[in-house]
Amino acid sequence: MTEFTFWFIITLTILSAGMVVLSNQLIYSAMALLSTLFGVAGIYVFLWADFIAGVQVLVYIGGILILIIFGIMLTNRISSVRLSQTNVQQGVGGAVAIWLCILMSLVISKTPWFQADASEPVGTVAEVGTLLLTKYLLPFEAISLLLLGALIGAAVLSRKEN
Amino acid sequence: MTVDTLFSWLGSLIPAMEGSGTLLVIAILIPCLVLFLVVAVNAIIMVYAERKVAAFMQDRVGPMGQGVGLHAGKWGVLQTVADALKLLSKEDIIPEKADKFLFILAPFVIFIGAFVAIIAVPFGETVIVADFNIGIFYILGVGSLGVIGLILAGWSSNNKWSLYGGMRSAAQIVSYEIPAGLSIIVVIMLTSTLSMQGIIEYQSGGMGNWIIFANPFTFIAFFIFFISILAETNRTPFDIPEAESELVGGFHTEYSGMRWSFFFLSEYANMLVVSAVAATGFLGGWHSPFPGYFDSNGWSVFWMLSKIVFLIFIMMWFRWTFPRLRVDQLMNICWKVLLPISLINIFGVGFWTLIFG
Description:
Number of helices of chain A: 6
Low-confidence stretches of chain A: none
Largest interface: A-B, 25 and 33 residues
Largest sheet of chain B: none
Largest sheet of chain A: none
Oligomer: heterodimer
Strand content of chain B: under 5%
Number of strands of chain B: 0
Number of helices of chain B: 12
Order of helices and strands of chain A: HHHHHH
Distance between the termini of chain B: 35 Å
Structural class of chain A: mainly alpha
Structural class of chain B: mainly alpha
Low-confidence stretches of chain B: none
Distance between the termini of chain A: 62 Å
Helix content of chain A: over 70%
Radius of gyration of chain B: 21 Å
Shape of chain A: globular
Helix content of chain B: 55-70%
Number of domains of chain B: 1
Number of domains of chain A: 2
Strand content of chain A: under 5%
């Protein structure tokens, strides 16, 4: 049962990720992205990262995906525009893609992966919170500052000049 | 009644199939079926209640039923059943210029968003489908699925009213999620758990222990949360996504028959879920207000349901009390009033806990 669910989620994620890239209508790409993001949240659940899965749904589906769809809807006459799915430099692009694929398979197979013990953690939220406020406080705050900068920058850029 | 207990109970009932995958699927499907019934019955009762409450607020009698037999029943109690049958048998109209696939998909996306949230709602001491350890966070998360459905419905209808409705709902719900989330953080700070049952457990021992009365800041937080969930469920005074006087029907202008009723099914399911979250987070969940009295397992269901129904009644009351807000007023209230207050609340609760323990 667990195995079936796992493979179902993996297939769903990969197929819908393919849809995101291959669909020639932006709104369908966005819809496919919805199930991709859900699939990724499902993978987090399988890794016992329940909190991260919740954040994935809340931030990526509840925030970013809605903004993407919002952006698509604000774009004029987007439904009539067919996006081209072909590329001009097919030969070079294909070669780079194959090279990257080989490189990544090599890295994945050669890396001595750290394997955690397979016992189920009781709750991850408290652990994540403690680590964020102790060991990873500086990176956490740095990211907050970066996001604040991005927010202010966006507000300044989108503001009309008087 | 969690899936696990149901699974082991079914296993003891049919020893030949104990622990098999089929039984697990059955154990998962039974609560889904029950929850679907809860959602459907909830919508039927709530639509009736809404019409009656609306009527009494305006000094009318509301649906009364005419004639004899099953014709809408005495006091119109069968009015919603008749309406549901009418909606089921109506012609299914899809506009010619609409994006057909998304048009059909949108009501289901909204419904799934409301439906999956109910899984984590505790209806009683043992009546919960799954007590996730990120329960309240999960409900807030999947709630956002409904917004995507609303936007899709608005966009795929290919109608300017629908599009405006969809865009308004997106802007509104995304904004009001922030004060709602920040008010829930206040609850989590006190209980130090995200599990729905854990939060209720913390509030045991009578009304004085409910989080709403824990300190002045949580008292404010409850009202901020309640205002925000009104906006998230598109209830008046925040119903600009479907503002009848401006947008015909808003995002569901082009929908009819069964597809249209799915919007209402999910709206009432959403109201149930958010009221349950408010009751869980601030009003002691399934705990009895009087410590030691009426707090058996059966009464816990009664208390939870009555708290939910009370909050839903308040929502209906608001509908006939407050005028609809304008779009700019809506955004002003969210970003300039509710957000700063809820941020101050978080600090306040932190300091209060530090000083008074």
